[in-house]
Amino acid sequence: MNASVDTIKAELKTRLKSLFSRARTKRGNRLLVHEIVSIQVISAALIGALAIAGLYWGGQWILQDNYGRWALQWTEELNELGSPLYLADDTEALIRLESYVERYPEIARVAYFDARGTAIISVGKTNDTEPVANLSARALHDAIAVVGNKEPYLMSKGILEPQRFEILAPLWKESISEDDLFDFDPSVVDSAERTELLGFVSINLDFVLFHDRLVDNIESAILVLLVLLMISALYGRYVLSKALKAISDLQEPIRELAKGNLSVKFEPAEHREIAEIVEALESTASALSARDAELLRLANHDSLTGLYNRRRFLEVLRHEITSVMRSGRDSALLFVDLDQFKYINDACGHAAGDRLIRKVADELSRSVRRDDTVARFGGDEFVVLLPHTDLAGARSTAETILANMRRMAHMEDERVFHVHCSIGVTMLSGTNLQQDELINQADIACREAKSGGRNRLHIFEPSADAEQQASAYIGWVNRLRNALDYDGFELRFQPINSISTGETAHHEVLIRLRGDDGKLILPDAFLPSAVRFGLMSEIDFWMIRHVAMAYAEESKSNPRLKLAINLSANAFEDDNLTAYIKKTFAEFGVRPSSIIIEITESLAIRRLAHVDQQIKSLRELGCEFALDDFGTGYSSFSYLQKLRFDYIKIDGSFVQDLPDNPVDQKMIKMIAEIGREAGMKTVAEYVRNAETFSILGELGVDLAQGFFIGRPAKRPKAKSAPISLTSRRIKLTASQTNLKLR
Ligand code: C2E
Ligand code: CA
Ligand code: CA
Q1: Total structural domains in the chain?
Q2: Do 447 and 484 have their domain in common?
Q3: Cα 698 to Cα 693: distance, rounded to the nearest angstrom
């Protein structure tokens, strides 16, 4: 996870913002409250209108229904009132008629006609001067036809003015004959002989009055309705705004949320719907902040070890630089690089490598103070920041780390791994500090530590180290090329003695590069560059030839001379290796059985088919094989038994502190036992003192190499060890005196 938290946060923010701005651009000025209230009012108004229309229609219907009944009643009464007018000129009857018409406001006019339809008299409210017209023949005919009917009148309705009616009714007199007086049959009332038509009455009715009253009522109903609507709209608005306020109140916290403030507080809502929204928002906020925290963790930590990663470490370092510049108190930066870690990956797979890296991370964290920062910088590189530390403190912490790592043994399947490390130290002091520069310094110092022999620390010295680093990188290819072309290398011979007899068994041949000033450069300084620039196998071939030449020369005086030569993996990648060795040895008269080839564990373990083939044919030739640097990588004891080696060279890191390290003693004892059982001789490197030498003897190691026995020299010199196991008891006192004297 390389994405930085800031970019992730920024993206989150912009997404939320765009969401909000999209919402904003779509936003008009419509208010939810207004919309709901208007819907409410419109629907109420519609219902009201329907109710009023219903009221009007119902009112009309009731009125119309009544008109019919009144018409009958009026016809009968006016019939009775009008009859006298036909018989005599009765003023009294006329007055009665007038008062009758007066009593009913809906009666506009009453007119009487004679049997032939000629108007006789008319009484009306309106004093219209227009005389009443005679009845038309058709009206006459129709009116005569209803005589004797159940509803003995005609009713015509004004088409233009529905509230105006005209009723036309015939007036007749029923005369019963004397002989029928006693057996009067009421069912035969319309017998023509007994009915005498007097004339006709027409009644003009005007119900506008009622209609107007109805309309008046409806008008006030509408008014009431409007008032009610207004009140309900206002009240609805109030209630709704109150309910929606809870939603509007959410705007501010949501805006805060969008700004990235995930700790916003939402007010609890009283309505369930809104409470649910609040709840959803709250869980969104907490999910966001959980993800934020997770992203932060991922962005700051190395997923394998849980330590800070490079990004986070650089932040911490930046802070520390400011703090050092402000306070004037020194701090230290350590660059820790695992030695030969990649072989573990090669031999056991990445899962095993990962497990080991985790173990190393734990060990590192345990080795430092609480306030120190340990981070994983790259694959097998770690960095440690020690705040408020002087040079002595930094050195002691680095030594603690080295010691703890040395002690650490990691088991994988049946194999025991020892991963040691090189530490580069640089100090943060003064005012002109630059982050990149500091990292670079610690890195350079770490490389220095590596090339000084692994499993050690180096403290960066500004001028010397920087220069060395610069020259190291600029000129290596040319220098190595030149050395190959013009024999710029030299050989050194380091004796390897039998511990029991003290006699030199053989010499290891070591390469040196002649520097411009004539000083010799050690192989750890230039071999890594040779590997990187693809010159390694050429160097090995150069060595084969020059070792053969040296053998030819030295064997003249020392026929029992035996030499060990280091060959790299690159040499074995060259298919010509075996042929070249055969040819060269033949050329210089080298007895192959006098040559031991030292190869490293990584090469032996990888067991590539063609490597196996080459080892086999060199073996057949008579060469012996030594497994170099045993214990540094991934060796397993059971595996060791399967490989056929003549010598096992126990790595110097187990030997250099042997007297003080019981774990190393146990390891070496075990290696020696297995070697013996498998018929392999064991060699211990880095034997630097008498005590180590005698302990190695007790542990059962066969041979010893180291400055105590002899330093690499220009020529192979057979010399006996200062002490040997057989002479130890006799010589011990003497050698100790000897040592003291030196
Ligand atoms: P190595 O094969 O493990 O060789 C032993 C190294 O340990 C040598 O360092 C030797 O000088 C050093 N040594 C032995 N005893 C002591 C001691 O008591 N104290 C100290 N401080 N050092 C001791 P050197 O010569 O610097 O070689 C380093 C490595 O370079 C060798 O480690 C080997 O891996 C490589 N190398 C040296 N010469 C050749 C060569 O001709 N060809 C190849 N391929 N590699 C070589
Ligand atoms: Ca060696
Ligand atoms: Ca070695």
Answers
A1: 3
A2: no
A3: 9
> DSSP class of residue 298?
H
Task: Give the DSSP H/E element, type plus range, for residue 47.
Answer: helix 32-87
CA of 341 to the centre of ligand 2 (A): 19
Domain boundary pick from 206, 227, 251: 206
Kindly report the protein residue whose alpha carbon is nearest to atom 27 of ligand 1.
Answer: 523
Q: How far apart are CA 606 and CA 612, in angstroms?
A: 10
State pLDDT tens for residues 343-379: 777 777 788 888 889 999 999 999 999 999 999 988 8
Q: What is the pLDDT of residues 235-244, one digit of tens each?
A: 888 888 887 8
With a 6 A CB cut-off, is 686 part of the ligand 1 pocket?
Answer: yes
Q: Which amino acid belongs to residue 734? A: A
| Distance between Cα 463 and ligand 1 center (Å) | 27
What's the 265 CA to ligand 1 centre distance in angstroms?
69
The reply to whether ligand 1 has any atom less than 6 angstroms from the CB of 568 is yes
Q: Residue 732 has what pLDDT?
A: 46
Which residue's C-alpha comes closest to atom 11 of ligand 1?
712
Question: 473 CB less than 6 Å from ligand 1?
Answer: no
Whether 527 lines ligand 1, by a CB cut-off of 6 Å, is yes
310-327 and 272-300 helices, crossing angle to 10°: 80
The CATH number given to whatever domain includes residue 158 is 3.30.450.20
Domain that holds residue 104: 76-176+193-206
Q: What percent of the chain has pLDDT over 90?
A: 31
d(CA 208, CA 206): 6
706 Cβ below 6 A of ligand 1: yes
* 354 within a domain of the structure (yes/no): yes
d(CA 95, CA 100): 8
C-alpha 52/C-alpha 218 separation (Å) is 7
Under a CB-based contact definition with an 8 Å cutoff, are residues 385 and 317 in contact?
Answer: yes
Q: Answer whether residue 20 shows pLDDT above 60.
A: no
43 in any annotated domain: no
705 close to ligand 1 (CB < 6 Angstrom): yes
Higher pLDDT, 176 or 404: 404
pLDDT band at residue 192 under the 50/70/90 scheme: very low
Token representation of residue 611: 């490597």
Pocket of ligand 1 contains residue 307 by CB under 6 Å: no
Which pLDDT band holds residue 739 (cuts at 50, 70, 90)?
A: very low
294 domain residue, yes or no? no
Residues 6+ apart with CB under 8 A from 8: 295, 299
User: Would you say the CB of residue 711 lies under 6 angstroms from ligand 1?
Assistant: no
pLDDT at 15 over 70: no
Q: Which residue has the tokens 């595996």?
A: 639
pLDDT on residue 195: 73
Residue 421 shares a structural domain with residue 492:
no
Kindly state whether residues 581 and 452 are assigned to the same domain.
no
Question: Which pLDDT tens digit goes with each residue over 466-485?
Answer: 666 655 555 677 889 899 99
Read off the pLDDT of each residue in 212-217 and give the average, rounded to a whole number. Answer: 85
Query: Which atom of ligand 1 lies at the shortest distance from residue 656's CA?
Result: 18
Ligand number with the minimum distance to the CA of 651: 3
For residue 506, tell me if it sits in a domain. Answer: yes
pLDDT reported for residue 742: 33
Residues 456 and 508 in one domain: no
More confident residue, 399 or 137: 399
Contact 594, 509 (CB under 8 A): no
How close is the Cα of 659 to the center of ligand 3, in Å?
Answer: 20
